[in-house]
What we know:
- By secondary structure, the chain is mainly α.
- The protein is built from 12 helices and 5 strands.
- It has 2 domains: 78-215, no CATH class; 226-293, no CATH class.
- The two termini are 27 Å apart.
Amino acid sequence: MTNKTQKQVKLSWFNVGVDGWLAGAFMTLLVIGAIMVASSSIAVAENNIHDPFYYFKRHLLFIGLGALMALAMMNISSDWMNRLSRPALILGIAALVLVLIPGIGVEVNGAKRWINLGVSRFQVVEAVKLALIMSLAAYIVKHKKGIQYSMLGVLRPLMLVVMIATLLLIQPDFGSAALLLMITLIMVYIAGARYRDLSVISLLAGSAMAVIAWAEPYRVKRLVNFVDPWQDPYNAGFQLVQALIAIGRGEVSGVGLGSSVQKLLYLPEAHTDFIFAVYAEEMGFIGVLMLIAL
């Protein structure tokens, strides 16, 4: 392999090497996201707050805060990361408990997942995801041999995730619980866990999650509506149907930036959970392919 193929394009931010291609993709996604927040939220912001760019301005504020935090994290050594991982995870688990306490946790659509910080609501699980990844990375560094040659080495981090997942299911937040479990399995796989161990654990975990999913009628209803939202297009399947209409309207090249019809209060949560549908409507199939490529 030549030096040319080995060489990586790098930027220097505060003496930290950053891959140029990764940074470029990140910045492009950041810009696209900001533009789509502005476009998709105009109607709902004007209707609810009488300021069409309220959510866009708030989004820019969070981008600034996130950028400062990212720069700070980039300049923290891996040793400090390892030291911070355990207290960060403990704080995250404590916050998951706090969110369940009446008066502290904010309930939205029947789920207690947020803590009100005054200027904004904070979804605790987002911080827990980062803390868990840091903690798992620290564990893998210390116990890589155990993970590669012992079932117990794989089970130890999974037991921690099961505890966190239990707190999430109480909220309830089945999706985040499943995501954290998947993150853990992927990380121990990358660490070199045996296929036999991973197969057994994945089968057991998948079976358990399937039972939990079908144990609650509302989850079953969501799954059924996801498979066929058109069976109840004016009630349970309304949001998905409106999202599909938005995606279909985009066709190949889209209706044009800012020209979405579905965002005009037809599609619920157009500026949050279903912002992709608005993007597909405005930018079309070509725009969707470009987004996926990034």
